């Protein structure tokens, strides 16, 4: 994977480079391709069907040491395909080689979409669903009257990825005596652990004339996807989030051992 760096004196917090998909290690490509098999293939088929063909395998990317709302909005205004937060003190040269899910995004970079990769510490303090939906509306992909369903569904997926995925917290704790207090203490402890807060949360958006697909990926331990319920009882303490998402989205797919949730919405 090659990175050609271009310093930007006007905006030193945003550093651009070009990511070449052909250099992604085979094992990494196989893992991330399995996460997005339907999403990426649908986009490829759409390009062939419309006669647009497939572009060169390079994608414009912006790196930033630390992300916040204003920096991310400034990055989106420049319309890169990938926006990657390195994290404070990270090795910039090594960052693109991490097992983050940008590989399929660079596979067909000429097709519409964008990709956001943040550290857990940053994602926890940001309204990621709001930023993503703002960008989808700005690009004319998401109609304002349909935004609420997408934003609510994405909020649930991101919360699951952060809390249950990267922070590794189980809702079962809440069912114990004093469980909510204990859950809050555990969350505070996890957010104070640099090794945990450096884990990545990736949001990958692509679309065509038929649908919008949004994938949310974490680096947690995953879960048995067969346990993600289609329905829950009124007394259920967990699993309601997936029922909620399946009610709002046209389709919800969970892959990569529970670490990737793909939300699809008809346009």
UniProtKB/TrEMBL annotation:
The keyword Nucleotide-binding belongs to this UniProt entry's keyword annotation: yes
Keywords: ATP-binding, Nucleotide-binding
Domain Histidine kinase/HSP90-like ATPase: 134-264
MF GO annotations: ATP binding
Gene3D superfamilies in UniProt: Histidine kinase-like ATPase, C-terminal domain
CDD domains with a match to the protein in the record: HATPase_RsbW-like
Official protein name in the record: ATP-binding protein
The organism of origin for this protein: Azospirillum melinis
């Amino acid at each position: 994977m090659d990175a050609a760096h271009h310093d930007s004196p006007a905006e030193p917090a945003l550093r651009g480079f070009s990511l070449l998909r052909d250099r992604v290690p085979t094992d990494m490509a196989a893992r991330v391709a399995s996460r997005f098999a339907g999403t990426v293939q649908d986009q490829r088929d759409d390009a062939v069907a419309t006669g647009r063909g497939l572009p060169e395998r390079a994608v414009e990317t912006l790196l930033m040491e630390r992300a916040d709302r204003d920096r991310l909005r400034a990055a989106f205004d420049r319309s890169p395909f990938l926006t990657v937060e390195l994290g404070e003190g990270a090795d910039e040269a090594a960052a693109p080689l991490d097992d983050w899910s940008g590989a399929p995004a660079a596979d067909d970079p000429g097709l519409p979409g964008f990709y956001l990769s943040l550290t857990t510490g940053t994602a926890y303090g940001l309204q990621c669903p709001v930023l993503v939906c703002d960008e989808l509306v700005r690009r004319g992909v998401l109609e304002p009257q349909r935004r609420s369903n997408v934003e609510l569904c994405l909020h649930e997926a991101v919360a699951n990825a952060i809390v249950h995925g990267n922070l590794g917290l189980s809702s079962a704790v809440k069912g114990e005596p004093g469980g909510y207090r204990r859950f809050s203490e555990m969350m505070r402890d996890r957010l104070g652990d640099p090794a945990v807060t450096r884990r990545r949360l990736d949001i990958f958006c692509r679309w065509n004339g038929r649908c919008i697909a949004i994938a949310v990926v974490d680096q947690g331990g995953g879960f048995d996807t067969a346990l993600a319920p289609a329905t829950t009882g009124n007394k259920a303490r967990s699993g309601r989030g997936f029922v909620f998402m399946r009610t709002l989205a046209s389709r919800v797919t969970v892959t990569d051992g529970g670490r990737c949730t793909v939300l699809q919405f008809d346009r």
